[in-house]
Amino acid sequence: MDLFYDSLCELAVQVCRDEPMDKHVTFRAGGPADYFVTPGSVRELKAVITLCREAEKPYFILGNGSNLLVSDKGYRGVVIHVGRALGRVHAAGGRLFAGAGASLARAAKEAMEAGLTGLEFAAGIPGTVGGALVMNAGAYGGEMSQVVETVDVLTKNGEEKRLSLRDMKLGYRTSCIQAMEYIVTGTTLTLKPGDREEIQARMEDLAERRRAKQPLEYPSAGSTFKRPEGNFAGKLIMEAGLAGLSVGGACVSEKHCGFVINKGGATASDIWELCRLVQARVKESAGVSLELEIRLLGDFS
Prior knowledge:
The protein is about 30% helix and about 25% strand. The chain is built from nine helices and 18 strands. The two termini are about 30 Å apart.
């Protein structure tokens, strides 16, 4: 018998056991999670968190899995998928209101349809609004800190709270969310009126630049390493002669050395070993310690 599973089911959420995580992360690698839960509302999300805490079960909040590497051993806990149920998006009065489960692409499109500019940079980032706020996602000179007005969260005790931009402490690929153990449920973004055709043209231009410069044809988690101060991770990796370096099915993209890609059949261990090898080689050649931008979930020992 699995009393915890039964208790999850009683909360009216969607629950799976031993769910393969390679289906839910953009690296397309990783072992199973003990429990995979998809709440249908903020109320159900709160109930799941409360149950996990009462049962002393570790949990992890998952969006689109676009910045995550899950161990081949899987995750001994509860993966809580914030998806469509928290994915509403609508614009009004120069603001865009978006649930944490909404994709950035959809949020950017809704802004464009409403004639609001400022979110074009996010159109090609393959993540959710919630995940973007956690890491202050950005691209091509734009980032979430430039458009955030407020962020709605649940505290680790299940309390609903609204944070200001200042409260969020947004920096380069960082925020207060992880340190405070908050869970993002939604946000209000402040945008500016713009010409819809110009906004669309800007989004199309950025999409073309991504296709030309990034290995979008392969599974990856986007930029694998954070940008070191005064330099670029991809440049340092290329200068270290690591373009095309492979471990199993994992490879440093020759199209953009800042990306570790899954060329086919890569395990999480392959990807992790390659990342560590790249870090060691760049440290040796340039004296720079590259920091991972992707997050790790599970046992990598």
